[in-house]
Design brief:
Structural class: alpha/beta
Number of strands: 10
Radius of gyration: 24 Å
Order of helices and strands: EEHHHHHHHHHEEEEEEHHHHEEHH
Strand content: 5-15%
Length: 416
């Protein structure tokens, strides 16, 4: 299964990069309740929960389905069906705005005003739409369900109750609260989120916002051919790579878009005819930015997850980590498989102790030099073996740090 972003007909104006405090709050909540997914945040999570009020603890239990496997769409920009506009200009009627951090999200904008505006958007959402999006979170999916008439349809209410009950008690209870009184459910949720702000998130956002803004600007530079490359984003290309044709040639523009999107996850691939970027995910979705503009949202607390939201009738969202992991599912699996070969295991044991040449390895392993070279090439391609030249000799060594990380990389990769 995969998420496919078809780039045919798309341009830089098909994407917005928006820094969102509410999206980052959802990432924090996920890290608090799914600490096994984020061992690097475990100490932070323990400190937050140790000092949490009884009301915050209760809310973490009650609303946890909204930030577990399927993230609630209400956490993300574009909830009103419109994309966040970029800074400095207003979109023409019916036109998309080029990529850039959204208003209220740049340095100095203040967590309060931006987060309060997102709270107001949720509060003013038609109650039927709120119920529909919350129901999707309760059943951990939206491709097999129709909740567009949830508050008026007995069949849809029964489908929600049945599907939520089959998953967990927490989902069943939240679905029951939603059906019993959706307005009260929304008011309680907003009160809980506001309590999160006062108890721990204000401090979190003060530290995270500058980093997220830098990431948003860097991604905007990669999405826009030639933009920011001569001026010096840390992620921009060198000035020598910037040419006038890069801003006008459609193939070059598509290649830039594909490169920028593929950089968001190690489990991505770029394909042609039509040009597209494919993310290895546990659900299937096709996104066409030329028809439905896409919002990109950076996160620090959600790493290593790349969350893709593509609910009906709303702009698709990619919630991407500011530092994409280097190892994805494919590479982690290939590294494990490489070490199941007994010849390679013996080879690795030898070069773990000291660097050796192919001639030495062939003699020790009773193999030919070409056989040893093939095994070494495979291990080098996977980043498990390095080479050092000394005069006319090349010595190979096992990268012990890379091997040591295999277990951790597998755990992280399975969460992408």
């Amino acid at each position: 299964m995969s998420v496919v972003i078809v780039l045919e007909g798309a341009g830089p104006g098909s994407f917005t990069v928006a820094v969102s405090p509410l999206a980052e709050l959802s990432a924090c909540l996920h890290a608090l309740t799914e600490s096994a997914h984020h061992p690097e945040l475990r100490d932070w999570g323990r400190a937050v929960t140790a000092n949490a009020s009884a009301e915050l603890r209760a809310g973490l239990r009650r609303f946890s389905p909204l930030w577990s496997a399927l993230r609630w769409r209400g956490f993300y920009p574009g909830l009103d069906g419109m994309r966040p506009a970029g800074p400095g200009s207003a979109p023409a009627p019916g036109a998309g705005q080029g990529p850039g951090p959204a208003p209220g999200s740049g340095p100095g904008a203040g967590q309060g005003s931006a987060l309060e505006e997102q709270f107001r958007t949720v509060a003013h959402l038609p109650i039927g739409r709120f119920a529909e999006l919350t129901a999707f979170a309760c059943v951990n999916g939206y491709t097999r369900f129709d909740f567009s008439r949830l508050l008026r349809s007995a069949d849809q209410r029964a489908a929600l109750e049945h599907a939520a009950a089959a998953l967990s008690a927490g989902r069943r209870e939240l679905a029951a609260q939603l059906l019993r009184d959706p307005e009260a459910c929304r008011a309680d949720l907003l009160a809980f989120l506001d309590r999160c702000r006062s108890e721990f998130f204000a401090e979190v956002w003060a530290g995270a916002e500058p980093e997220l803004t830098r990431s948003a600007l860097a991604v905007r530079g990669r999405l826009t051919p030639g933009a920011g490359r001569a001026g010096g984003s840390g992620n921009s290309r060198p000035p020598s790579a910037t040419r006038t044709t890069r801003t006008t040639h459609p193939n070059r523009t598509t290649e830039d878009l594909a490169e920028a999107l593929a950089s968001l996850s190690p489990d991505s691939s770029r394909l042609g005819a039509p040009p597209r970027v494919v993310f290895d995910k546990l659900h299937h979705s096709v996104i066409t930015p030329a028809r439905t503009p896409v919002v990109l949202v950076p996160t620090r607390y959600n790493a290593p997850h790349l969350v893709v939201k593509n609910e009906p009738g709303l702009p698709p969202v990619l919630h991407y980590p500011v530092d994409a992991p280097e190892v994805g599912v494919t590479l982690a699996r290939s590294r494990m498989l490489a070490l199941t070969d007994p010849h390679r295991v013996r080879l690795c044991r030898l070069i773990a102790r000291e660097p050796m040449t192919t001639l030495d390895l062939a003699a020790r392993l009773s193999m030919t030099q070409p056989q040893v070279s093939r095994h070494l090439r495979a291990l080098r391609d996977l980043g498990l073996v390095g080479a050092e030249r000394s005069g006319r000799f090349v010595h190979y060594r096992l990268d012990l740090a890379a091997v040591e990380r295999i277990g951790q990389d597998v755990v992280r990769a399975l969460q992408h």
